[in-house]
Amino acid sequence: LDLIRAAVRPEVSSATDYSSDSDDNAALIQRASFTGSVKGWRVGVRGSWRRADDPVRESWSWGAGGHLVAPLGRGAVLRLGLGAQRLDPDRGADETTMTGDIGLGFRPSRFASFSVAYSRAPFDETALLIDSAFVLDAVDLGFEYAGGKGLSVSAGGGVSWLSDENRRLAGVAAVMQRVATGLEVGVFARIMGYRVPYPGRGYFAPDRFTVAEGRAVYTRRSGRWGLRLDGGVGGQQVGAEKDLQNEWHAGLGLSRGWGAASEATIVAAWTNSAGSSATGAFRFWSVGLRVRQGL
User: Which has the closest alpha carbon to 96: 124, 66, 54?
Assistant: First the structure.
């Protein structure tokens, strides 16, 4: 009963993240939101700001918006979001971009779900990209299956259009199997490519980027404490004609809960995957704090 109440009660959440890469791009990001229930719908408001810097510039981005999630019956759910994002570049004039998303989720059975979504947002991951004021329009598809015996399968793909008239195609898939209490092992693969590769506009745009890895995830809970460790090793090809390189990632999550719907989590990640950075950097790492407080 406590878990059912926690799923519909109001909550406040925040996320603070700091990231850096081997190309000397750094970003400090703060997000906050409030979500509640109104006649069976989940509605909320959010706000965010980002400070991004590199050796020659410091730029800012901040925004606000709202969203609602409405059940449509027969396992279908509608999500709508609308907002605005203001870009404050180190060089050039400020710009305000309308943001939004609309998505449909379907759960035809207990174990499977599908989703389709459209979103519009600025491409503001680095100081140079904030200065460039590119906007991304994206359409994404997703599928998840979590059956008995600990097997889970997920896949997705989509197309993104940049305001500089470039286009990105991407796909991802993962298969994980529980092999012991708290331990899952499996495989992961991702591919993406741009219509106009390497345009020299400050973002990672290969003609084709592929990565595949074997990965493991370990989770453990003891009372109010929770631990998550994940890692993977594999290979990546940064360009259709490039040589295969090694690839790896490692992640950590440490959480402490209270009440039925409140939790604080420290997260950290480190990888050499070129696809993890907006610039295709050789190394990328991040640390963050997540807090969720039920009301």
Answer: 124
- How deeply is 232 buried, as exposed, middle or buried, from its count of CB atoms within 10 A (0-12, 13-18, 19+)? buried
The answer to whether residues 134 and 157 touch, using CB atoms and an 8 Å cutoff, is no
pLDDT digits (tens, 9 = 90+) for 195-230: 999 999 999 999 999 999 999 999 999 999 999 999
Contacts of 186 (CB under 8 A, 6+ apart): 174, 175, 176, 177, 214, 215, 216
Distance between CA atoms of 226 and 156, rounded to whole angstroms? 28
Secondary structure of 105-174 in HEC code, one letter for each residue: EECCCCCEEEEEEEEEEECCCCHHHHHHCCEEEEEEEEEEEECHHHEEEEEEEEEEEECCCCEEEEEEEE
pLDDT for residue 4 is more than 80 = no
Mean pLDDT computed over 112-141: 97
Q: Is the pLDDT of residue 289 over 90?
A: yes
Q: 106: closest CA among 81, 80, 78?
A: 78
Which among 117, 35, 36, 104 is positioned nearest to 75, based on CA atoms? 104
- The Cα 27–Cα 284 span in angstroms is 12
Q: How far apart are the first and last CA of the chain?
A: 16
CB-CB contact of 106 with 100 (8 Å): no
In this structure, are residues 226 and 254 in contact, taking their beta carbons and an 8 Å threshold? Answer: yes
Name beta bridge partners: 190: 172, 211
Compute the distance between CA of residue 80 and CA of residue 92 in angstroms, rounded to an integer: 32
Largest Cα–Cα separation, the chain: 57
